[in-house]
Design a protein that fits this description.
By secondary structure, the protein is α/β, with parallel strands linked by helices. The chain contains eleven helices and seven strands.
Length: 252
């Protein structure tokens, strides 16, 4: 499940035949010239509405920490997100007031439970993804991450997610801990192939802001060549006619 960062990239992914997409909080923030976690709830809600209205694919929302500290605030945010048309959304256990700190387990579980109840109240069939961000802070905290994923599964999450897990054994352990619910694995760099992840029992894969980083990296490489006096790097770009044909099909 790839992660577009704007309407254009979302439409390209639909054109390529992907079955679903997920938003990327980092990619979206960068597209507005801001760092990750520097966008507001209203910004993200508008972004999600734009994505859902622009394509026919299911959209899973990277909804950060729910843009609220307390469970009631998370529930309110979740209901607003569902109103944009998303098919799923994720809630992190990262403290909204301190990016390098997680909520304690009891609080994190209550926030997931509040999100679950909010979804159920709406009557919409929206997938709740519960994320623990601990491995992005401390890559060694695998046991803690597994404990949290298990607790989130019991609290009503439909899919579990621990960005930063890399080792095959750790991935397999997470799959077992949350079974029969699915585990999402984030692939941010080259490494395991999709078939290897499937063999480990992984049922969903996303790439976060990786596609946006690739796009920005390519642009910077060519811009550096231009700054040095060469336009050779422009040869690698897609033809404007091809892009016009792709995007024009969405306007018919």
């Amino acid at each position: 499940m790839p992660n577009p960062w704007d309407v254009g990239s979302a439409r390209l992914l639909q054109h390529m035949g992907f079955q679903a997409v997920a938003s990327a909080s980092s990619g979206y923030a960068w597209s507005t010239g801001r760092p990750d976690y520097a966008v507001s709830r209203s910004d993200v809600l508008q972004h999600l509405s734009s994505l859902c209205n622009a394509i026919e694919l299911p959209v899973n929302a990277d909804f950060e920490s729910g843009f609220a500290d307390d469970p009631a605030g998370v529930a309110e945010s979740v209901e607003l997100a569902i109103g944009t048309g998303v098919a799923g959304l994720s809630i992190e256990d990262r403290d909204v007031d301190a990016a390098e700190r997680l909520y304690d387990l009891e609080t994190a579980v209550e926030r997931v439970r509040a999100a679950r109840l909010a979804i159920d109240r709406t009557g919409h069939d929206v997938i709740l993804v519960a994320r623990t961000e601990g491995l992005l802070i401390d890559p060694r905290a695998v046991t803690r991450a597994i404990e949290r994923l298990g607790a989130f599964a019991e609290a009503g999450a439909d899919c579990l997610y621990a960005p930063g897990v890399i080792d095959k054994g750790d991935i397999a352990a997470m799959v077992r801990a949350v079974a029969p619910k699915p585990l999402n694995v984030l692939m941010m760099r080259p490494g395991l192939q999709f078939s290897e992840l499937a063999d480990l029992g992984v049922r969903r894969v996303s790439v976060g802001g990786a596609l946006a980083r690739v796009a920005y990296g390519a642009m910077i490489d060519v811009a550096e060549q231009i700054k040095a006096g060469s336009f050779d790097g422009l040869a690698g770009g897609m033809q404007g006619k091809v892009l016009n044909d792709i995007f024009g099909a969405f306007e018919k």
